[in-house]
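Propose amino acids for all 330 sites.
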């Protein structure tokens, strides 16, 4: 019997590729070349499944070109790189990697928020540039984190993990905005209060963005929302590029309309809006919020588990569109 062919689109832990080889004919990308859309299309030819990252875009036309595809295992919790309705319509299963990265990503979001509030990156650049000649009472004074109001936009698993750190570790009152209010048993231990979006931007001392990307939330943080924020406030984005209007943010930072920002994700990454590189009051990291060794390994393992299960008739642990698994009635 011929074994299914799968594509591993980006470099991952070699032992995870080896594990996949026990089940499949594997084409992989050990040198981690960045494939063009055409190259990805070419490499998917004849494949039944693929292990992807958030960098590979899958649309309806690509699916139509590859009718053998049965499963796309994204090594990310977010899956806005994949047209899921188009996959569902064609019976292609999509899986993601939730839960395994929640705490690691929340750690990083909290670290970024603290770095912005306490001006850690900005002051380190100053020191490395040899500009530290004396102590001064107001040198790099920033905003406190403990006791300050934490505003979370997107109170899913990662949002709640950020809220736990703030409420339980730093005595922060937590306000949040989400499409739907969370049940009392989630809100109460954190003292978290649902507010409308404008109130969140107006009242928070530190805003953290943790919502999934969809076209409906494109530039949900723009000129208007930034104008609502306190001049002493910070904005942290660990969600997705495109949620923040980066050009508007660069202007607000340059004009000190908000105190500081911390960004792990960018519109059009790995390109950055040039204005962000010019302002000192922003901490910039290259999309590494989930990048602890243990978590990246757990993500790769879960993506492989999903791929193997889906192509060997077992139940994939974390399907995004489980409806394609339902037995067909026709
Ligand atoms: C990934 C992420 O590192 O899980 C996500 O949604 O953004 C990150 O954890 C990245 O997307 C690679 O796939």
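Proposal:
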């Amino acid at each position: 019997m011929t074994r299914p062919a799968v594509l591993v689109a980006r470099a991952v832990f070699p032992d995870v590729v080896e594990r996949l080889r026990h089940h499949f004919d594997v084409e992989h990308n050990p040198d981690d070349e960045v494939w063009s859309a055409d190259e990805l299309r070419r490499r998917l030819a004849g494949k039944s499944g693929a292990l992807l990252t958030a960098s590979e875009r899958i649309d309806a036309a690509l699916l139509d070109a590859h009718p053998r595809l049965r499963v796309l295992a994204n090594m990310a919790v977010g899956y806005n790189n994949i047209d899921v309705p188009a996959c569902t319509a064609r019976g292609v299963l999509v899986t993601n990697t939730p839960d395994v990265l929640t705490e690691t990503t929340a750690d990083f979001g909290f670290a970024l928020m603290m770095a912005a509030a306490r001006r850690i990156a900005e002051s380190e650049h100053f020191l490395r540039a040899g500009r530290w000649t004396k102590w001064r009472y107001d040198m790099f004074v920033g905003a406190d984190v403990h006791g300050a109001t934490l505003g979370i936009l997107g109170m899913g698993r990662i949002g709640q993990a950020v809220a736990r750190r703030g409420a339980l570790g730093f005595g922060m009152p937590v306000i949040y905005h989400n499409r739907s209010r969370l049940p009392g048993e989630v809100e109460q231990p954190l003292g978290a209060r649902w507010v409308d979006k404008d109130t969140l931007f107006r009242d928070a001392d530190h805003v953290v963005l943790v919502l999934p990307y969809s076209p409906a939330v494109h530039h949900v943080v723009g000129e208007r929302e930034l104008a609502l924020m306190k001049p002493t406030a910070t904005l942290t984005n660990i969600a997705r590029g495109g949620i923040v209007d980066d050009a508007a943010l660069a202007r607000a930072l340059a004009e000190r309309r908000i105190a500081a920002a911390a960004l792990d994700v960018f519109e059009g990454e790995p390109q950055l809006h040039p204005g962000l590189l010019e302002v000192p009051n922003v901490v910039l990291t290259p999309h590494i919020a989930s990048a602890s060794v243990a978590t990246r390994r757990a993500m790769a393992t879960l993506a492989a588990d999903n791929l193997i299960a889906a192509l060997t008739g077992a139940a994939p642990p974390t399907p995004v569109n489980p409806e394609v698994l339902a037995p067909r009635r026709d």
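Residues 89 and 112 are 39 Å apart (CA to CA). The pocket of 2-keto-D-gluconic acid is lined by residues 53-54, 75-78, 101, 290 (CB under 6 Å).
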